Backbone:
C-alpha cells in the first residue's frame, strides 16, 4: 500500500510539473494542485483498502 501511494502521488506531481513547463505557468500551481489531488486520491484508496481488509477478516 505505501508503494501504491507513492506511485500515485509521484505520478500527479510529474503530470503537474509537465503541465507547468508546457504552459509556462508561474508559481508552479499545476504541480502544487495536482500533487495535493494525488495525496487526496491516495489517502482515499488507502482508507478504502483498509476497510475492505477489515471487513473480510
Residues:
Amino acid at each position: 500500500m505505501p508503494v501504491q501511494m507513492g506511485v500515485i502521488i509521484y505520478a500527479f506531481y510529474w503530470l503537474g510539473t509537465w503541465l507547468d513547463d508546457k504552459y509556462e505557468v508561474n508559481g508552479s500551481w499545476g504541480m502544487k494542485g495536482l500533487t495535493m489531488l494525488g495525496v487526496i486520491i491516495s489517502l482515499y484508496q488507502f482508507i478504502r483498502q483498509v476497510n475492505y481488509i477489515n471487513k473480510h477478516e
Residues 1-54 form one domain. The CA atoms of residues 12 and 39 lie 9 Å apart. The mean pLDDT is 96. Residues 29-55 form the longest helix (27 residues).
